[in-house]
Amino acid sequence: MVEIKEVAKAYGDSVVVDHVSMHIPKGKITSFIGPNGAGKSTLLSIVSRLIAKDHGEVLIDDEEVSTANNKELAKKLSILKQSNHINVRLTVRQLVSFGRFPYSQGKLNEFDEKMVDSALAYMELGEMQHKFLDQLSGGQKQRAHIAMVIAQDTDYILLDEPLNNLDMKHSVQIMKVLRRLVDDLGKTVIIVLHDVNFASVYSDQIVALKEGKVVKQGPTKEIINNGVLKEVYDMDIKIQDIDQCRICLYFS
Amino acid sequence: MSNRTKIIILTVLSVLFVSIYLFAGLEGNWTYILNRRATRIIAIVVTGAVIGISTIIFQTITNNRLLTPSLIGLDSLYQLIQTFIIFFYGSTSLSATDQTINFFISVSLMILFALILFQLLFKKGNNVYYLLLMGLIFGTFFQSLSSFMQVLIDPNEFMVVQNRMFASFNNVQTDLLYVSLILLAITFIYLMTYYKYLDVLSLGKEHAINLGVDYNAIVSRLMIVVAILVSIATALVGPIMFLGILVVNVAYEMFKTFKHSVLLSGTVLISIVALVGGQLVVDRIFGFSTTLSVIINLIGGIYFLYLILKENRTW
After folding, report:
1. Domains: count for chain B
2. What is the CATH number for B26?
3. What are the angstrom distances between the C-alpha of A214 and each of A41, A203, A209, A234?
4. 75-104 of A, contacting B, C-beta below 8 A
5. Could you say which of A29, B93, B219, B235 would form a disulfide bridge with A203 (CB–CB 3.0 to 4.6 Å)?
């Protein structure tokens, strides 16, 4: 369970996250949606201790993240940022093996190797595991990074716009993998999404943010409606049920 | 060729160069000659190792293959200290002539400066690039101050100052060498505890934090290790960090790996080969008429041009 209490963050005079409080349930996919500059990514970075907060508390299983033991926290929570450019030249397998660092401190044992194998298999990367990352397409690279997070084997998985720059096929593939992680392995996924329809179709819970504040939080059905979306995006969005999925038509 | 073979070849080459340096043309009072040569070769090997290791760690922390630890401004501070001593006390004073006093003054001032600089910056949110910028500004400031003093002093004194500005292995003192060896050994032992984090740090700050590395604490400690290593090497033989960027890039090019276990040993061997080989050329071919820095910079420059041209063709 992730408990966010009165969290605030400002850069100089501009307030990015403005006293946000929320409760994120375990074993669900929770999506953060909202317009650009709503503070979604910043909030995610604060929850994952990448950025220090100015005020408030973030509790993961009742433990404050900023004071928690870093090594132990890395076995519980993983984060994947939107730009994960790596300066060194790595193969897919080497990257995924880094996911085991919190457990092995660099010396992989048999169990670690097994976990790496299964993470690679989970993302269908087995065949290209010895290819270098710079030889892969954007979608394959993103899958390799997600495989690393899977190898890290944490209860909480935080992803910052993992669908950025991906085509429809790969976006759907990644969302399905996240769904499986939650349904089969009981992980908790917190994800920042740009496309409301992906949030609507795949998530259990949605948090709608605007100008650093939570507009509304609740089960997907309650958020994906004309009133809430109008408040968040300042747009009249028509919503239709297609095959039991609520689809937002925001193109015209 | 596997990386293992490359390491073996480099080891053989270093041993070969070192033995040529030690034993070639040994005649007359050979114990005396061997003693002098051994001191010099130990100094070369030690500084070579220090340069390679500190540059690799520095580049891993900053995630940039074009930076060298001299950016913190330690080289310039060393030049300033030397100029300052001669400017105010003269080239015949005790602190200028006695190498032991000079060594301890230089080392302690450089480490003190680095600690103050880091302390100031790590309090303010710890941004490595901010640190580099401050280092660069301080470095330039120290340099301007030294050249200001150099313009004012007596030309004969200036010759003494200028001599100190070039790295030289020719008059390293034995007792100082032992002191440095002990200091460096302690630093290396301390470094060993952080060694396992280096591979992860090369992925960048966010990945490192995600993988459970206590980023701020570990980076600041590694920075201090780098500062101590650079200070000792510089005070022992003079400003020498020019070699770092060269050997490290040769190592990256040669080993094509991110693993620090291979990179560190490879870099150390390459710098030993480069330094001992260069010193052989200086001693035997040019008969001491030039300095090692000149030779290394010449060969290094040519190698870099080759690398750029080669890259160009593959594009």
Report:
1. 1
2. 1.10.3470.10
3. 13, 17, 5, 15
4. 75, 78-81, 84-90, 94, 98-99, 101-102
5. A29
